[in-house]
Amino acid sequence: MEWNKKFNYPSSTRALIQGKRHYSLDGSNLPSVTTILSATKSEEDKAALVAWKERVGKLEADRIKKEASSRGSSIHKFIEEFLHGKLNQDLIDDNNHSKKMAEEIIDNGLKNRLTEVWGAEATLYYPNKYAGTADCIGVYEGRETILDFKQSNKPKKKEYIEDYFLQIGAYSLAHNTVYNSNITQGVVLMCTVDRLFQDFKIEGNELLDYQNKFLERVEKFYNLFVN
After folding, report:
1. How many Cβ atoms sit within 10 Å of the Cβ of residue 68?
2. Sheet containing 143-152: order of strands
3. Over 90: is that where the pLDDT of 30 sits?
4. 136, part of any domain
5. Structurally, how many domains does the chain consist of?
6. Domain enclosing residue 65, as ranges
7. CA 101 to CA 200: how far, in whole Å?
8. Is there a domain that residue 98 lies in?
9. pLDDT tens by residue, 102-118
10. pLDDT digits (tens, 9 = 90+) for 56-95
11. In this structure, are residues 167 and 147 in contact, taking their beta carbons and an 8 Å threshold?
12. In the 3-class helix/strand/coil scheme, how is the chain assigned residue by residue?
């Protein structure tokens, strides 16, 4: 795996505007990809979330959400260190669960597959529409790829992670638009708390479909909150 800084990814600052996360880029405030997805959820998805919170209770729901967020941040930090060649896996503390989960993703999903890194935790944007942070961009199994790293409490089925694919659609479309790249593949690398590794891939026409679906969500967001 080698770094190839062939693209100049912009620096940005994040801000909350009317309670929604935005990226400040060259004087523009663009809503984040996750903000757009959250604000345009279907009524069915909103109802399912409310039902889950009622089932487990508000305190437990908050605890699970906070714990998952903290664990996800740690896993991303360790993977980013690996991508930059700064993570010494021989020194991983056996008691550090987040590091062990990161190691599953590194060993099963990245080694011998990711051959070239263009950016990690890189800011991407679609002019005048949206922005976000991609976990990793590069050449994966010989193809230009957006990679997303996830953690989960339990194994997932592909049909349950549509939002992850919409994120990949958003980032790949932004990258291809701004840099004239040819990203035709998106990969989600996931590890459960029980350290089960999973990977999911979308490519070709399926990726194009998610790009178009995300643009529909962008239009819905602007109609709801901007116009």
Report:
1. 14
2. 2-3, 114-126, 130-140, 143-152, 185-192, 197-203
3. yes
4. yes
5. 1
6. 2-6+32-225
7. 17
8. yes
9. 999 999 999 999 999 99
10. 888 887 888 888 888 888 899 999 999 998 866 555 555 6
11. no
12. CEECCCCCCCCCEEEEECCEEEEEECCEEEEEHHHHHHHCCCHHHHHHHHHHHHHHCHHHHHHHHHHHHHHHHHHHHHHHHHHCCCCCHHHCCCCCHHHHHHHHHHHHHHCCCEEEEEEEEEEEEECCCEEEEEEEEEEECCEEEEEEEEEECCCCCHHHCHHHHHHHHHHHHHHHHHHCCCCCEEEEEEEECCCCEEEEEEEHHHHHHHHHHHHHHHHHHHHHHCC
CATH of the domain at 117: 3.90.320
Q: What is the pLDDT of residue 157?
A: 93
The CA distance from 95 to 151, in Å, is: 18
| Measured distance CA(99)–CA(2) in Å, rounded | 22
Q: Which two tokens stand for residue 119?
A: 């950016």
Strand order in the sheet with 28-31: 13-17, 20-25, 28-31
Residue 156 lies in a domain: yes
Q: List the structure tokens of 96.
A: 């550090």
Closest by Cα among 21, 19, 39 to 29: 21
Q: Mean pLDDT across the stretch 128-157?
A: 95
Distance CA(113)–CA(8), nearest Å, equals 24
pTM above 0.70, yes or no: yes
Tell me if 110 sits within 8 A of 102, measured CB to CB.
Answer: no
User: What residue type is 165 in one-letter code?
Assistant: F
For residue 201, is it within any domain? yes
